[in-house]
Design goal:
This protein is α+β, with helices and mostly antiparallel strands. It has one domain.
């Protein structure tokens, strides 16, 4: 995790655990992060809406490419 004016969450290193009210995970630097479920859903829906409005690649293909290629 990089902290400055912006907090940059790194990719998941050791997996994630659904917990009451959200998800907890440890990033590659060892920082433990809790993300509330409402925030996860809000971010997912917002990014999906923006992608579908502005991109030519279908959402499902885009999501798959994140896991296959590691691209963002």
């Amino acid at each position: 995790m990089k902290i400055g004016r912006t907090v940059e969450l790194e990719d998941v290193a050791q997996g994630y655990t659904p917990v009451a009210g959200g998800v907890e995970y440890m990033d590659v630097s060892g920082a433990r992060v809790f993300i509330p479920m409402a925030l996860l859903v809000r971010l997912y829906e917002g990014v999906k809406w923006h992608h579908e409005k502005n991109a030519h690649q279908p959402w499902d293909e885009f999501c798959e490419s994140l896991f296959v290629n590691g691209d963002m």
